[in-house]
Each structure stands twice: as structure tokens, then as C-alpha cells.
Amino acid sequence: MRPIVIVPGLGNSGPQHWQRLWQAEMPDRIVAVEQADWDQPDFADWLLRLDAVIAACAKAPVIVAHSLSCALVAHWAAQHERPVASALLVAPADVDSDTHTPPETRDFRPMPMQTLPFPSVVVASSDDPYVTRDRAEAFAVAWGSRFVDIGAAGHINSAAGFGHWPLGRLLLDDLSR
């Protein structure tokens, strides 16, 4: 089985977030990128830490990113050539928008808009406070990703009522094949 790299976003994913629940369910298969500072992200350090985790994988991993880390993965893909099997990019935060993202995300600008060199799925909500549905779809088109709109689901995190998130697991399983 392919390894899975979990990449939490700004503020980290708490213990009830679907990313951490999946990690607890599959500890032999999932590794999470851990950042030095989850609240004041250092772009260069976050990029280095993501690269180190991917480099340590025995096989090309499946990346599972949330929020700000979708931008991180897009930047990483534009700068690195390590093998990645696929990526699940959930609730991508619009780092180019002062209206939708906080000042501490500005170093992640501009959002890369190049085709990703691996298959990917972008999952978005119609009422996400960090990105409009249309902008999330524009990311998916630019990245060459399949776009999945799950309706009014907030930021697709534990605060929005997402625990184990069965649909996400189905998407992950599909990308892992």
C-alpha cells in the first residue's frame, strides 16, 4: 500500500479533525507533516518540512492537504520532482484574497496555477469562509484536478461537523489505487 502524507493547514488539525482521525485509524500507513509554528507559518520552513516527509517515503505517497496546505502542495509541486502518486486537496484557502485569508498566509502568495504533475482531486464547499466555490473550482481547473463540490459544508473541518468524513475516505481510497 502507498504511504499517505497528511498536511494540516493553518492552526493545525485538532484531534477531532478528519485528518487526525484518519491518522489514528491508519498509523502504519499515514505520516503527518508537523510544523514548528502552526499559527505563524514560515513558508520556507513549511516547504522544507513537506519535502522532507515526502522524501522519506519508501514509495510515491498520496498527499492529503487541507486549507492553507493546498497552496503549500501546489508550491511544492512547482519546485520539486519527487514522485507523488496523487493528492486529495480539501478546502483550498485562497491565499491571494485579503477577504478570505488572514495576513499570516501572505507568504504563500501567489497561488500557483500550473498543472500538478500527479492526479488530484479538489474538494470544496459552497460556503467556505476561506475561498469561494468558483475560486476553488478555478484552482482545480488550473491544477488539472477533478473538482468535487460537496455543497454547504463550511471549511470541511471539525468545526463544520466533519469527524471521520466517509466521503473523504472514499475519495482517498480511490486516489490510493
From TrEMBL:
Keyword Hydrolase: yes
Keywords, sorted A to Z: Hydrolase
GO molecular function term, any single one: hydrolase activity
Top-rank taxon: Bacteria
InterPro entries: AB_hydrolase_fold, RBBP9/YdeN
EC number: 3.-.-.-
Pfam families, sorted: Ser_hydrolase
Protein name, entry field: Alpha/beta hydrolase
